[in-house]
Amino acid sequence: MPDIIDETLSSHNETPEPVPEAGVFGQAVNAVGIVFAIGILASAGLLMYEVVMRYAFNAPTRWVHETVVFLSAIAFVYGGLYAAAIDKHIRVVIFYDRFSGGVRRVFDVLISLTCLVASVFFAWAAWLSVARAAWTPQGDFRLETSGSAWNPPYPGLLKIFLLVILILLAVQFAIFTVNYLRKKAR
Fold this sequence. Notes:
Elements: H1 2-12, H2 23-56, H3 64-85, H4 93-96, H5 101-134, H6 154-182
Protein backbone atom coordinates (compact mmCIF):
# COMPACT_ATOMS: atom_id res chain seq x y z
CA MET A 1 0.00 0.00 0.00
CA PRO A 2 2.75 2.58 0.79
CA ASP A 3 4.25 1.91 -2.67
CA ILE A 4 0.98 2.89 -4.34
CA ILE A 5 0.81 6.08 -2.30
CA ASP A 6 4.46 6.92 -3.10
CA GLU A 7 3.88 6.34 -6.83
CA THR A 8 0.73 8.46 -6.78
CA LEU A 9 2.44 11.32 -4.94
CA SER A 10 5.54 11.24 -7.14
CA SER A 11 3.47 11.27 -10.35
CA HIS A 12 1.75 14.48 -9.21
CA ASN A 13 5.03 16.23 -8.40
CA GLU A 14 6.59 15.80 -11.83
CA THR A 15 6.74 18.70 -14.23
CA PRO A 16 4.80 17.89 -17.41
CA GLU A 17 6.98 17.40 -20.46
CA PRO A 18 6.05 18.57 -23.93
CA VAL A 19 4.69 15.93 -26.27
CA PRO A 20 7.15 14.69 -28.92
CA GLU A 21 5.11 16.36 -31.68
CA ALA A 22 5.85 19.75 -30.09
CA GLY A 23 9.48 19.37 -31.15
CA VAL A 24 12.42 21.36 -29.86
CA PHE A 25 10.22 24.44 -29.85
CA GLY A 26 7.90 22.80 -27.31
CA GLN A 27 10.88 21.89 -25.14
CA ALA A 28 12.01 25.52 -25.19
CA VAL A 29 8.49 26.70 -24.25
CA ASN A 30 8.49 24.19 -21.39
CA ALA A 31 11.90 25.35 -20.15
CA VAL A 32 10.98 29.06 -20.23
CA GLY A 33 7.80 28.33 -18.26
CA ILE A 34 9.78 28.41 -15.02
CA VAL A 35 10.30 32.15 -15.49
CA PHE A 36 6.56 32.75 -15.39
CA ALA A 37 6.12 30.36 -12.46
CA ILE A 38 8.66 32.46 -10.57
CA GLY A 39 6.67 35.53 -11.60
CA ILE A 40 3.61 34.09 -9.88
CA LEU A 41 5.67 33.51 -6.72
CA ALA A 42 7.00 37.06 -6.97
CA SER A 43 3.41 38.31 -7.22
CA ALA A 44 2.52 36.51 -4.01
CA GLY A 45 5.57 37.99 -2.30
CA LEU A 46 4.67 41.48 -3.51
CA LEU A 47 1.13 41.10 -2.21
CA MET A 48 2.50 40.12 1.19
CA TYR A 49 4.82 43.13 1.07
CA GLU A 50 1.88 45.40 0.29
CA VAL A 51 -0.17 44.01 3.18
CA VAL A 52 2.70 44.57 5.62
CA MET A 53 3.42 48.07 4.30
CA ARG A 54 -0.24 49.08 4.34
CA TYR A 55 -1.39 47.59 7.63
CA ALA A 56 1.77 47.41 9.74
CA PHE A 57 3.43 50.66 8.67
CA ASN A 58 0.48 52.62 7.21
CA ALA A 59 2.60 53.21 4.09
CA PRO A 60 0.82 51.66 1.10
CA THR A 61 2.66 51.52 -2.20
CA ARG A 62 1.60 52.91 -5.57
CA TRP A 63 3.22 50.22 -7.64
CA VAL A 64 2.49 46.79 -6.12
CA HIS A 65 -1.08 46.28 -7.32
CA GLU A 66 -0.34 47.10 -10.96
CA THR A 67 2.87 45.06 -10.92
CA VAL A 68 1.06 42.03 -9.50
CA VAL A 69 -1.69 42.34 -12.11
CA PHE A 70 0.94 42.61 -14.87
CA LEU A 71 2.97 39.63 -13.65
CA SER A 72 -0.17 37.53 -13.30
CA ALA A 73 -1.43 38.58 -16.73
CA ILE A 74 1.77 37.67 -18.56
CA ALA A 75 1.88 34.32 -16.73
CA PHE A 76 -1.72 33.66 -17.77
CA VAL A 77 -0.99 34.58 -21.40
CA TYR A 78 2.13 32.41 -21.46
CA GLY A 79 0.07 29.59 -19.97
CA GLY A 80 -1.79 29.20 -23.26
CA LEU A 81 1.44 28.55 -25.14
CA TYR A 82 2.66 26.26 -22.38
CA ALA A 83 -0.59 24.26 -22.36
CA ALA A 84 -0.30 23.77 -26.12
CA ALA A 85 3.31 22.55 -25.87
CA ILE A 86 2.47 19.92 -23.26
CA ASP A 87 -0.77 19.04 -25.08
CA LYS A 88 -3.02 19.90 -22.16
CA HIS A 89 -5.22 22.36 -24.00
CA ILE A 90 -8.99 21.92 -24.05
CA ARG A 91 -10.12 19.06 -26.23
CA VAL A 92 -13.53 17.42 -26.48
CA VAL A 93 -12.60 13.80 -25.90
CA ILE A 94 -16.01 12.15 -25.84
CA PHE A 95 -15.48 11.02 -29.45
CA TYR A 96 -11.73 11.53 -29.86
CA ASP A 97 -10.80 8.85 -27.32
CA ARG A 98 -12.93 6.28 -29.16
CA PHE A 99 -11.20 6.79 -32.52
CA SER A 100 -8.59 4.42 -33.91
CA GLY A 101 -5.00 5.61 -34.41
CA GLY A 102 -5.49 6.57 -38.07
CA VAL A 103 -8.68 8.56 -37.47
CA ARG A 104 -7.14 10.16 -34.39
CA ARG A 105 -4.13 11.24 -36.49
CA VAL A 106 -6.46 12.91 -39.02
CA PHE A 107 -8.23 14.72 -36.19
CA ASP A 108 -4.88 15.76 -34.69
CA VAL A 109 -3.91 17.31 -38.03
CA LEU A 110 -7.30 19.04 -38.42
CA ILE A 111 -7.30 20.31 -34.83
CA SER A 112 -3.73 21.62 -35.14
CA LEU A 113 -4.49 23.27 -38.48
CA THR A 114 -7.64 24.89 -37.09
CA CYS A 115 -5.71 26.15 -34.06
CA LEU A 116 -2.97 27.49 -36.35
CA VAL A 117 -5.50 29.48 -38.39
CA ALA A 118 -7.22 30.75 -35.23
CA SER A 119 -3.86 31.78 -33.73
CA VAL A 120 -2.97 33.73 -36.87
CA PHE A 121 -6.32 35.56 -36.80
CA PHE A 122 -5.92 36.34 -33.10
CA ALA A 123 -2.35 37.53 -33.73
CA TRP A 124 -3.67 39.87 -36.43
CA ALA A 125 -6.24 41.26 -34.00
CA ALA A 126 -3.52 41.64 -31.36
CA TRP A 127 -1.38 43.52 -33.90
CA LEU A 128 -4.23 46.01 -34.44
CA SER A 129 -4.33 46.55 -30.67
CA VAL A 130 -0.53 46.91 -30.47
CA ALA A 131 -0.57 49.48 -33.26
CA ARG A 132 -2.85 51.68 -31.14
CA ALA A 133 -1.05 50.91 -27.85
CA ALA A 134 2.53 51.48 -29.03
CA TRP A 135 2.36 54.39 -31.48
CA THR A 136 0.79 57.82 -31.36
CA PRO A 137 -1.40 58.94 -34.28
CA GLN A 138 1.64 60.93 -35.49
CA GLY A 139 3.72 57.73 -35.66
CA ASP A 140 5.89 58.29 -32.59
CA PHE A 141 6.62 55.27 -30.41
CA ARG A 142 4.97 55.67 -27.03
CA LEU A 143 3.54 52.80 -25.02
CA GLU A 144 0.05 53.00 -23.60
CA THR A 145 0.17 53.53 -19.84
CA SER A 146 -2.24 52.64 -17.07
CA GLY A 147 -3.34 56.17 -16.27
CA SER A 148 -2.85 55.65 -12.54
CA ALA A 149 -0.77 57.77 -10.17
CA TRP A 150 2.23 55.55 -10.92
CA ASN A 151 1.31 55.26 -14.62
CA PRO A 152 3.52 52.36 -15.81
CA PRO A 153 3.47 51.22 -19.45
CA TYR A 154 2.10 47.80 -18.45
CA PRO A 155 -0.96 47.87 -20.75
CA GLY A 156 1.22 48.53 -23.81
CA LEU A 157 3.77 45.91 -22.76
CA LEU A 158 1.04 43.35 -22.14
CA LYS A 159 -0.45 43.90 -25.59
CA ILE A 160 2.97 43.46 -27.21
CA PHE A 161 3.55 40.31 -25.15
CA LEU A 162 0.17 38.93 -26.20
CA LEU A 163 1.06 39.51 -29.86
CA VAL A 164 4.39 37.72 -29.47
CA ILE A 165 2.78 34.77 -27.68
CA LEU A 166 0.07 34.45 -30.34
CA ILE A 167 2.73 34.38 -33.05
CA LEU A 168 4.63 31.73 -31.10
CA LEU A 169 1.40 29.80 -30.62
CA ALA A 170 0.86 29.84 -34.39
CA VAL A 171 4.40 28.51 -34.81
CA GLN A 172 3.71 25.77 -32.24
CA PHE A 173 0.53 24.69 -34.04
CA ALA A 174 2.37 24.73 -37.39
CA ILE A 175 4.95 22.39 -35.87
CA PHE A 176 2.17 20.19 -34.52
CA THR A 177 0.46 20.09 -37.93
CA VAL A 178 3.64 19.05 -39.73
CA ASN A 179 4.61 16.48 -37.10
CA TYR A 180 1.13 14.95 -37.00
CA LEU A 181 1.18 14.70 -40.80
CA ARG A 182 4.52 12.88 -40.61
CA LYS A 183 3.41 10.57 -37.82
CA LYS A 184 2.36 7.08 -38.73
CA ALA A 185 -0.90 5.78 -37.34
CA ARG A 186 -0.39 3.46 -34.40
